[in-house]
Amino acid sequence: MSPVSNIKTLKIDGKDFSARQDETILEVARQNKIFIPTLCDLRGLSTVGACRMCLVEIKGTAKLLPACVTRVEEGMEVTTTSERLDRYRKSILELLFTERNHICSVCVSNAHCELQSLAQRLQITHVHFPYRYPKAQVDGSHPRFVIDQNRCILCTRCVRVCEEIEGAHTWDVMGRGIDANVITDLNQPWGSSETCTGCGKCVHVCPTGALFEKGRSVAEMLKRRNFLPYLTLMREERD
Amino acid sequence: MQGAVSKSIVIDPVTRIEGHGKITLQLDANGRVEDARFHVTQFRGFEKFCEGRPFSEMPALMARICGICPVSHLIASAKACDALLAVRIPPTADKLRRIFGLAQVVQSHALSFFYLSSPDLLLGMDADPAKANLFGVLEKKPELARDGIHLRQFGQQIIERLGGKRIHPSWVVPGGVSEPLTELNRDAILAGIPEALAIAERTLGWFKSIMENFREEIGSFGNFPSLFLGIVKKDGGLTFYDGGIRIVNSAGEVLANGLDPADYREYIGEKVESWSYLKSPYYEPSGYPQGIYRVGPLARLNVADRCGTPRADQELAEFHELQRTAVLSSFHYHHARLVEILYCVERLEQLLTDPEILSKHVRAVAGPNCLEGVGCCEAPRGTLFHHYKIDEKGLIRWANLLIATGHNNLAMNRGILQVAKHFVHGERMTPGMLNRVEALIRTYDPCLSCSTHAFGAMPLVIQLFNASGDMVDEVRRPC
Which of A73, B294, B332, B379 is the most exposed place for a label (fewest CB within 10 A)? Predict the structure, then answer.
């Protein structure tokens, strides 16, 4: 196959773009500075399409498709912003807020939280669903880090970074649906995990205040994520 | 109420106070006030829902108890957390916290005096309720209202310059503070001191000039013997941040001195009455309810030997002249509040010109080293205790808070009884009677949402009850 045939042309929000055939709609949009909201996606990690924030409309398809895992196709016409998409995205965010206990004002990640900033960007002022107020656990058994399940949105970034970059696979997901939780090892206290190397990558990729460094006070947990693309690149080169 | 031999009056809601509550007055068969109760009707449960949280979140979490004095909760909570870390915080952090606390006293006292109480003092206790507010003050004596607004702004802006925002900053953290003070901010705060000082002097002068008009109120507004409790420095000086507990009796004699705030449970009992969510603390050695004590500005000036700043020391000496014994009338809370504002502004200048104040070393870092810690400071309304127990993972297992307004609970009840006996006659409340009962409460500047760490949306109400328990009158005002 000649290199030329690998290039696809498509329209995003009425504008023409060309992209490699192995690229996703999200990648093309980002390269061209078109904003599509995401929560579970993080550059340097595999994509899972879990949060559904990046849903877009594609002409000829009744279903909304997640831009992070949908590859470009020739002649594709993508819409990233519409009243319908806005409604869906807001509903998803509102449901995330009601699912556990997100109290921004007293959170270590206040003002540095992806969930919070996305809600602000999408101009969410109220949550229209009843809150569930589940009794969720805080595991402070690790000497340096804490997991607060109240603030977890099950994006699985921690699970992916631990497996794909660190290679430890300490984190995983247990349970289904509303009972799903991220766990360490076989649902043991984090502090007694034998696989955790204590590298802290999970803490820094976490989009909310669910994973944080011990001793951080409110609004003090700043996440550093720039290490991730470099680490990925270096590991790929080594392989 | 046929056949009723005695009646009771209900004031619900009590206005121009922070929070919501009601008063019931019990009348005897002759229509004289027999008993009075101050009910705090809110419940919030901070002590319970903080269980399981990492202790490092506590200062900012507990600051949410109150939007007026979040700084006091931040400081008491952070001090309790310092005890959990078992660290000595850097000297500059200590001074910065003091500045933060003083700024908050200035703004809170300004709120109490100018916004809530000056209408009573300027327009009189019998003034038209529609005018008894800051707008009424603006009309009659605009410079007084402007001074109040300016002074509150002065305090609030210091809080913003240090903590990033005026309400609920999270700048005070376990081990110190999160950011050092910049030169720019220090100079900006210092530039506001002369004006703040002038306002403090001016207002104190005005208050002293009108005090004579309130002779009857001075005599009957919570004018009774009680103990007074507050923290003082080792040399007996006034302090808001750190010191030992001193207790003086109504004769002005020191009953206890240098008590460690960490041992508060050894000398302070906490009684719970079924008719209020507000605890009734008392001095344990004297028993309940004889161990009634007062805290706050009046108590602080009664327990302190000196202020430690030149102008406030002169004013303190004059204040002590009001009475040979301890100053007993709760009406003098207003006077004490103004002396304290003067002290705070003078002390702010001393601290801000300290050569160490711009040091970048403002935080001590450690893990939890003790499983129990008590933090204590003087909030604008009185002595504040935060007491936490954690597990070895650093999660809160138990918390107890003793709030300034709580300490004054018994005294407020007794004060209401006294003022009601003096001013309330017959089965109907006149506006003047109602306002005097409320004004008594205002002298204590109670913060009811703080004191019960409570949630609620009901301003204060006064109810009148007869001996058989039937309500015969109720006074309710919009807040």
Answer: A73
Confidence (pLDDT) at B479: 40
- Note whether B19 and B114 are same-domain residues: no
Q: Cβ of B64 under 8 Å from any chain A Cβ? A: yes
Q: In the Cβ-directed half-sphere of A131, how many Cα atoms lie within 13 Å?
A: 11
Quote the ipTM score: 0.89
Cα–Cα distance list, A158 to A40, A75, A144, A154, A166 (Å): 10, 36, 16, 9, 10
Chain A: residue whose CA lies nearest to B62: A106
How many structural domains is chain A composed of?
2
Chain A residues within 8 Å of chain B (Cβ atoms) = 105-106, 108, 110, 138, 140-141, 143, 146, 148, 191, 214-220
User: How far is Cα B219 from Cα B205, in angstroms, rounded to an integer?
Assistant: 21
State whether residue B253 is helix, strand or coil.
Answer: coil
| CB of B15 closer than 8 Å to CB of B437 | no
The pTM of this model reads 0.90
Peptide bond connecting B289 to the previous residue in cis, omega within 30 degrees of 0? yes
Q: Identify whether A204 is part of a domain.
A: yes
Q: What is the DSSP letter of A164?
A: I
Same domain, A74 and A162: no
Encode pLDDT of B208-230 as tens digits. 999 999 999 999 888 999 999 99
CA A180 → CA A100, A191, A193, distances in Å? 12, 21, 20
pLDDT the model gives residue B419: 87
